[in-house]
Amino acid sequence: MIFGNLWTAGFGPYDAGIMALSSLVVSAEDEAVAVLSRVLQDLDIKVEIARNPQALLASPPGRRYDAVIVDCQEETSAFALITHFRQTPENGHAVVIALVSSQAQAREVFGRGANFLIYRPVSRERVLDSLRAARGVMRQERRIEPRIPVQAQAVLDFPGKENAAATLVELSESGAGLRTQDQLPPACKAYLQFSLPQSQAVVRISGEVMWQDRGGRVGIRLLSVPPTSRRILHRWLQEHALDDAPAEAPEVRNLGGAGSGLPSASSSDRRNRERRACSLGADVYPGDSNVPHRSTLSDISTGGCYVESPEPFPQGTVLTIVVRTPEGKLCVAGKVESSDLGYGMGVRFALTTDGQRTQVQQLIARAESEPLGKG
Predict the structure, then answer these.
(1) Residue 51: which domain range?
(2) Which pTM was predicted?
(3) Whole-angstrom Cα distance, residue 173 to residue 11?
């Protein structure tokens, strides 16, 4: 039962339960390209090469990358390219890594929005140190939506084969993880149908194959979900999100650290109190609203927390965070201190009574008892 027209998409290796990370290297130097490519591939990051920054400025790629590495040998075009990427909707939130030769270049590229540095002369050790740190940020920024583990038999259609057997192992509003013994063509559109646990209703979706590894694991980005299937999917995910959804906080925002190429937190994200990484489902209520916004707390301290949400509230918004537990519900008031569109918001707690402080301590205890998701 093949539906619609077949078309191509990206393809890459399995990466820790999410779509394969992808990168674009912009450099005309063969040696730098060779070292960067080897390290990126060793880190399971798909790599594409562009030799001419001027051509990219004239005709930028329409696809999204998790990382863009720009060689700053030709300063004018390289600096312009970094600024240009920061202004595009596809790659405005990509991790930008600049290959620089001096502290002066480092200051310039940080001012234009670079996140990490790699200093010349290029060596495997320098590249590996920076890219390992960058990969952690890339993974964190990918994980906006909770991914729910699931075990369900599925039927998969793709170019050249219908009714292939597959097992659904992971699911979110925007993607699915599968296992199958069949080899899918590199870059294709696929169609999937399955019934979720405790449900007899059939979910039908079409998607874009983003990666497949040698172990038969496949990542699919959802493209088309009929309304009935979307309602079933959304309801099931909501019911299972509280206990099962792993998440990671995009803890690093404006990154710097000239000379090291390693991340340092921006001032808005620094905390005077120790933070606890966590994965707690929460309902967030802005102002006096009684409409909950489903979110995930991904770190917490006695002073505040980070709330993952693709549509965070503006800075200064007063809100109430509610976490439901088997023992009841915990309510904490706070104010948005930082807002990162597409990722989430940093919230400072507003604690004026002993009862409110007790609620926060109970919330932290709850976070400590919850296992973190795989990362």
Answers:
(1) 21-142
(2) 0.40
(3) 20
H or E element in which residue 304 lies: strand 304-308
Total domains, the chain: 3
Q: Residue holding tokens 């309304």?
A: 227
- For residues 304 and 349, the answer to whether their CB atoms sit within 8 Å is yes
Q: Look at residues 108, 142, 176 and tell me which one is the last residue of a structural domain.
A: 142
State which amino acid sits at residue 267: S
Q: Classify residue 160 as left (phi > 0), alpha (psi -120 to 50) or beta.
A: left
Which of these three, 142, 172, 200, is where a domain ends? Answer: 142
CA atoms lying within 13 Å on the CB side of residue 326:
4
Output the tens digit of pLDDT for each of the chain's 375 residues: 333 222 222 223 333 334 568 899 999 999 999 999 999 988 888 899 999 888 888 876 667 888 999 999 999 999 999 988 877 777 777 888 999 988 788 888 877 878 888 989 899 988 988 888 777 667 655 544 556 888 899 999 999 899 999 999 888 887 888 889 998 886 688 999 999 988 888 899 988 887 776 667 888 888 888 888 888 888 888 887 644 433 333 333 222 333 333 233 333 333 334 566 677 888 999 988 888 888 888 778 888 888 887 778 888 899 999 888 776 788 889 999 887 766 678 888 888 887 888 888 888 877 766 644 433
Distances (CA, A) of 317 to 329, 347, 374: 22, 9, 31
Closest CA to 261 of 38, 30, 60, 39: 39
CATH number where 336 lies: 2.40.10.220
Q: E strands, 140-292, where?
A: 148-158, 161-171, 175-179, 189-195, 202-212, 217-224, 276-286
Whose structure tokens read 């803890």? Answer: 251
Note whether residue 337 is domain-resident.
Answer: yes
Do 236 and 300 share a structural domain? no
Query: Are 247 and 373 within 8 A, CB to CB?
Result: yes
CA dist 348 and 270 (Å) reads 12
